[in-house]
Fold each of these.
Amino acid sequence: MANNLLESTASKSEEHEFYTPIPKGYKPGKTKYVIIFGTVMSGLGKGIFSASLAKLLQMKGLNVAPVKFDGYLNYDAGTLNPYRHGEVFVLEDGTETDMDLGNYERFLNITLSKDNYLTGGKIFSNVLSMERRGEYLGRDVQIIPHVTGEIKKFLRNLAMLRNADVIFVEVGGTVGDLENAYFIEAMRELAYEEGRENVCFIALTYILEPKFLGEQKSKAAQLGINKLISFGIQPSIIACRSHSPITNKIREKISIYSNVKPNHVVGIHDCNSVYEIPLLLKANNTDNEVLSLLGLKVKDGEKKEFSRWNEFVQNLLGAKSEVTIAMTGKYTEIRDSYASILNSLEHAGSALKTKVNIKWIETTEIENGKKKLEDELKGVSGIIVPGGFGKRGVEGKIKCVEYARKNKIPYLGICLGFQIAVIEFARNVCGMKSANSTEFEPKTPEPVIDILPEQLKVDLLGGTMRLGGRIVEIKKGTKARQLYGNEKIKERFRHRYEANPDYLKRLEEKGMVFSGKAPGVPIMQILELKDHPFFMGCQYHCEFTSRPLNPQPLFLNFIKSAKEFSP
Ligand code: GLN
């Protein structure tokens, strides 16, 4: 039945009100859709939930593909301030996305692309270009059906592109946000067209547990779910985030108010690690409930991968030793800004059965003398200077790197951290006292870090950095070569500045080794120091490619060295 409906909705003519651009070759019913909405409040971990459930289905041998919808009008996440929105996660193809895409890549161990991420800005940009091309045949262009039609087209394209068995759609924000309303409407239409048996709606909600009452309350959750139902969307599963495990009373209340069977009301209480969520969902049998709702029958092939995942979590949580790593940065108050680095440290920590504690260092306080460097770095076994933009805190970071170099504390410099290491070395080892980056000091007489030549032509801010996966050639006989075990690797970049080729010789003469570079052009991509247990910098973001069961080599060996260092 759904198929006929799809055929009749596919026409663009003015004759009727249906308008659904179906991509050529799309087979209705072949791909199932799991669609996740947030209610009550944002920040509940919809992405983690979606990734965890998708992981369980992937473990059963299904081909899953995630998508995130973001309501804002930015074209991508590249122009968003990480302080407000969390880190910008860069995909292999250079798309700058929301941090949830990082969760999907890590949980599912797959490489995503621009086809897995959709913002309101991109949708409207597409619709307006189509309008200018006259593709709407004289129709007035409307949110329904044209904008919603584009959203459905995006999903169906992805279904075909990835040959997906199940697409997981995370609708960003919260039900009730005006900017998400058309995404929600598009999902209602999708279920109408694809057939209810092919779509599973899930509402993620929050169960309050105010301290002054000492008991769980479901009213806010009920109101949130009712709001979703008022859009014509009846959830099949309700996932309840809560501080402690939800009580039976709560489960029953939610069930009765929302027409969802009690065994489809799933509790997800606070856990020590997000990587526990798949285990929790498995214990609740949520994966099998979703399969039966979608009428999917699969072979039971999950055991081996599930036990590897379980082992990863047990090693992470039951670590016998610990190290403390200092992270310097501008956004230290908001941990989401460094989500992928924190995850990479967990991956390395689990592999080495070591708990990694983080000590956050606000380097402006070192600059203005409010805090002393030695006090701040006491007890620390490793220092990371992560990526960043702008001048704030830079001088404090340079001091941290100097301290790490002189005291032989393991150092990992990522992107900006690579550049800071070059500046520090130029100033304190090569005697170039005024060495700086033209990003911070445009008129510096010793621009050891300078704008990439290709960036001189760029005049727009969005999507114009040197972005995405690129080849790094690694020099023989270096530490980088030993750690990667390969002469060519691919890592992801996001920068405008580089180590200035005019100064490389002077830096190298004094012992800085540029062990990784771009093929064919003098863009330095990895640096290291010889007489140091671990001093490495990478111009790329090594944190984007680390996976739970396959820790990124720089992080792994950085933590190994940190374990051997006694502060
Ligand atoms: N601001 C530096 C540049 O643009 C570093 C960028 C980063 O750390 N991502 O090159």
Amino acid sequence: MKVQKFGGSSLADGKRIKKTLQIVLDEKTNHYVVLSAMKGITNLLVEASKNAEKGNSDYKLQLLDITKRHRSVIEELFPTEKRSSINEKINYLLDELKDILHGVELVQECSLRTKDLIMSFGERLNCSIVAEYFNSTGHPSQMIDAREIIITDDNYGSSNVFLQKSYKKIKERLENTGQIYIITGFISGSEKGITTTLGRNGSDYTAAIIGAAMESETVEIWTDVDGVLTADPRVVHNSFVIPYLSIEEAMELSYFGAEVIHPYTLMPTIEKNIPVIIKNTLNTKAKGTIISKNSVNRERAITGIASIDNVSFINVEGGGMLGIPGIASSIFSALADAEVNIIMITQASSEHSICIVCRTIEVEKAIYHLNKRLEYEIKTKKINRIDVKNDLEIIAVIGENMKGMTGISGKLFSSLGDSGINILAIAQGSSERNISFVIESSDKNTALNTIHKTFIG
Ligand code: ASP
């Protein structure tokens, strides 16, 4: 059996939903289909909840938009005489949503718990329509509300799943009856039965949990690109789809900006050794990218290049840092207090400076907290300066085959040198799977194209 997950872009309108049915039916296995909300609906729900919380009646506009989008899909999918039953279900859900938003408007307060409930309507509305549509075309289908089978704690906004409990519930509920199960992605329920969610873009995680529980053969993630690419196609025009990725490579690439999938959310499939395949709804012939434990690209040293825009570099420097334990700890605690995510760290063995790279939007609060925490060291001149440099880019060169291979860094940095690119900082973990470095943003295009040409072709 297979689990197939379709994201919002595969469900943007009636035409795409019809295409999705075709893809599901092309598979002659049992059908476990996980769906996101229709494209853009979760964002509208978030916007509506924010407006209602401010007491701003504009949430009614978003509600209207949500209503119109679903109604027009119903019109596209069902002939007039068959619309009444689905309209009844949808109206029921939309009325409930309207009441909740009105409640939020009255109290001008929207807790994370309430926000989870509001966001859950995206997947519930969409799955109701799709299940009804599949049934109307003569393919017996049943909608499964994942709040009954995916059990979490009550960390609203991004709940933690109790996997074993959920696996048991899933197996009980999804016994093989030969029908198509249409399962709501993203949403879950706490042990007390309260609606929770798995965090934004959480439907991949839903698919992974269902796949792991049912010990499926594969989990397919259907999206709107042909797979994971060797580099950003907007910058590197001859980038191409990577056919195989190891789990670690997928994690590194997705972290560094290849936004196709969040392998962290695929942990349940990794644990059970279930391959995950990225496929394109708009181009079903494309083979996609297979992510699995053993899939290693054997042809090239470097599998892919990723990059993160809009980063800044904070350099903490001082003669008094040398040989003194605890300075690094103070720096990292200050950044943790500031809730700043550190993307990259470098420290030369002279211990004279520590360089941290974070997102530019976080740099101001990072500096504030560093100055506060290191006040004594600055006063006593152990630290001489804290400098910031903006408009930077992190480039990460990723590949399982780099491990133990000599000459990769040499070739990488001399090719960049030949192209006149200045490197501001370098980091390589001992896994040898990733070499990351920082350059000026203006050098991004040249750097990506140079590396792609040198290593990938
Ligand atoms: N609909 C949810 C979101 O937009 C979950 C998902 O699409 O994966 O975040």
Amino acid sequence: MRRTLGVPLPLTLLRLLLLLLLVAPAGCGRAGTPPVKGPQPGALPGYQVAGGDPVPDSPTLAAARARGHLVIGVKEDQPYLGQKDPASGVYSGFDIEIAKMVAADLGFAPDRIEFRTVASANRETALQNGQVDYYVGTYTINDNRKKLVGFAGPYFVAGQALLVRRNEKGIDGPQDLAGRKVCSAAGSTPYQRIQRDYPQAKLVGYDTYSACVDNLITGQVDAVTTDNAILQGYAAKVPDELRIAGQPFSTEPYGIGTPRGDTALRLAIDDALAHHEQNGDWLRAYRATLGLSGVPAPEPPPIDRY
Ligand code: GLU
């Protein structure tokens, strides 16, 4: 029986309060409580926008120029990485900054970017069908996906980890998941790794990690698994409730997904990443976003121009 059935009201209230905390934008704490830490617009770098037509060979960018704006696929529920303010509709986070700095070098100012939320399971289809021009959202580069889409980068390296309730005693690593309920996003590499390497775990799939976290808080699953960078953000929002258990157990290099045939776009994005890593924008953006979840900036990984 689900734990919520015995005491529906308090758990429903708790669930609502914690959800509010998870989605609250910077500066909007509840009355009497300090504001939830989040990216402060004033601390974000601005990016010099390239003039003219800097990448004339890219069919994706030609279509974007004809349309008048870029459409960039992102996440909307990953604190410090890609998060949408429900009131203003504004997206913020490290992935959003990466998307913007790249757009600037491609000739698009922030007011010519439309961010579109695309879940983990739908990224390849969205790129293949031209629903987004490129995708920046904790997107691991791997050979299977490279058969379907292109990848610029990597621009960051994460590792799969586990998020548990603070009082959890029995889970210190994936080996402890046998017989326990673990939640992840369908179509993600962490979901696939549990399915393949830890078949004794009771794997639950949702579209988003925030749905998993909601189920962890209310006791319907015992752990959430995905990249440490994502889980750190959820833990930082409700540190009294949640913590990361054990050490990362995979390597997840984050790339920018591109339509597979558009080599000119992919290489132009590699150039843009290298440029912003060298001029300090990458580090400033990290410190103003993901760095707020408590992890100091790493060195950006070497870019793989293939
Ligand atoms: N980096 C992993 C992946 O691309 C997990 C995060 C996500 O689902 O976006 O599948």
